[in-house]
Amino acid sequence: MAAATTGMPMLAALAILVLVPSARGLDRAEFLPGFLFGVATSAYQIEGAYLEDGKGLSNWDVFTHTRSRGIDDGRNGDVADDHYHRYMDVEIIHSLGVNSYRFSISWARILPRGRLGGVNSAGIAFYDRLIDALVQKGIEPFVTLHHFDLPHEMETRYGGWLGAGIREEFDYYADVCFKAFGDRVKFWTTINEPNLFTRLAYVLGKYPPARCSAPFGTCESGNSHHEPYVAAHNMLLLHAAAVHNYKKNYQATQGGSIGIVIAMKWYEPLMNTTEDILAARRALSFEVDWFLEPIFFGDYPGEMHELLSSNLPKFTSEEKSLLRKNKADFIGINHYTTIYVKDCISSPCDLNTYETYEGNALVLATGERDGVAIGKPTAFDGYYDVPEGMEQIVKYVNQRYKNTPVYVTENGYSQHSNNTMDELINDVERVNYLQGYLTCLSSAVRKGANVRGYFVWSIIDNFEWTFGFTVRFGLYHVDYETQKRTPKMSAKWYRDFLMGSRPTDQVQTLRADS
Ligand SMILES: *[C@@H]1O[C@H](CO)[C@@H](O)[C@H](O)[C@H]1NC(C)=O
Ligand SMILES: *[C@@H]1O[C@H](CO)[C@@H](O)[C@H](O)[C@H]1NC(C)=O
């Protein structure tokens, strides 16, 4: 064997390794058969067509048009990714080798005026076509009923989530969806990240209806100490009512399951003190157990009762029993980051720091300890690359809500849009991020964690709420002028992982050849 011929393939192999970080130590076969691997999106962030085919205005349509100052680049989702007109997105999704796709239904597209108007048949037809296209390709639709976009009329009629009238509206909407799509949809979730939404909308006043009070923010009206808990109370009750309806009237014939999706950070104590260790637990309690304890055990966590007293609404005994009898079939975890927390009870924290939305829990969240960041920062303020948090949060939810299956419904990495095209496409940092988090998830699975699925946020760059288009989460780059989709390095990496053709295999093949 001549030296010249052995050198070449080795170099080629090394070039592949440098170009695309390998999926070594990570194997799809380690996850149970039937484990869902997918990508995720939401209606307002990708669909566009905001006034087409009978769709009603949503809270976000109105908010972005009337308060564009609240969006970093002043833009909106009128067109977004124009997904409403682009069925080839299903081809892109399919090309990755996923077996599931998580998306949300636009409530205002189905019921432009809520329960008091008619069902928009063009809206039903749009989702029918999407669901059929997915099912035909063997991709399991994983459907969110509500992902931040509410028919605007709900805001004017009920004060959004603050009015109890929203419960019947949601119940009606959910029923229309179960009836129309439930023959093909086997995975339903009621609300996406109600904990994050209520804090941004009613504590910080940054999402519609932009209500808040001092010291959390400056809004025309609102009460940051009370209203987020009223909104959450209504969300919990309408979630339970929808689960009740699904289980009573649809589950036996349609054979699906229903859950809820909660945004979950992992919290590390800033200092190794009893106070900060308790603060980290309290932060989880105010973020995660705020929703999951009522759903699984019928009431809010004890420490929320203690700290919030009369600001926390009370469940009647019938409501407690409705909750307990209609537990979610599974828990969706949206997990992106880990941060440090510091206690603010033993020594009060600076008022300026209340913009960290853990404020009511009397904890201060911070990304740094002694000037050193907890992980590599991402384009999203306060979000760091800390893969170990994935295993921790899954373990926490598994232990606390015993035997309830978990799906990681979102995990992903953001880039600044103002990077060069070359940097955006060669997204090595995203590949490293996803590889790290998936490796920790597979480690949790090896130790017996009850996890049934994992979804990357997102398949394509899209409208990121108050960030507008200034950040990009996609595995595919989108040129918003032409709507051209271009796969990033991370899309190729995810496909290689899912299809099992890994660069390490290629290296071995090349070595065997030489
Ligand atoms: C925290 O302190 C305890 C006791 O003081 C010690 O046993 C433990 O190793 C410390 N943990 C860390 C992470 O430093
Ligand atoms: C890119 O945008 C971010 C905010 O979106 C900003 O902080 C940063 O300075 C910008 N960088 C350049 C090079 O313009």
UniProtKB/TrEMBL annotation:
<dbReference type="GO" id="GO:0005975">
    <property type="term" value="P:carbohydrate metabolic process"/>
</dbReference>
<dbReference type="Pfam" id="PF00232">
    <property type="entry name" value="Glyco_hydro_1"/>
</dbReference>
<keyword id="KW-0732">Signal</keyword>
<protein>
    <recommendedName>
        <fullName>4-hydroxy-7-methoxy-3-oxo-3,4-dihydro-2H-1,4-benzoxazin-2-yl glucosidebeta-D-glucosidase</fullName>
    </recommendedName>
</protein>
<dbReference type="GO" id="GO:0008422">
    <property type="term" value="F:beta-glucosidase activity"/>
</dbReference>
<comment type="similarity">
    <text>Belongs to the glycosyl hydrolase 1 family.</text>
</comment>
<keyword id="KW-0378">Hydrolase</keyword>
<keyword id="KW-1015">Disulfide bond</keyword>
<dbReference type="InterPro" id="IPR001360">
    <property type="entry name" value="Glyco_hydro_1"/>
</dbReference>
<dbReference type="InterPro" id="IPR033132">
    <property type="entry name" value="GH_1_N_CS"/>
</dbReference>
<dbReference type="InterPro" id="IPR017853">
    <property type="entry name" value="GH"/>
</dbReference>
<dbReference type="GO" id="GO:0033907">
    <property type="term" value="F:beta-D-fucosidase activity"/>
</dbReference>
<feature type="signal peptide">
    <location>
        <begin position="1"/>
        <end position="25"/>
    </location>
</feature>
<dbReference type="GO" id="GO:0004565">
    <property type="term" value="F:beta-galactosidase activity"/>
</dbReference>
<keyword id="KW-0325">Glycoprotein</keyword>
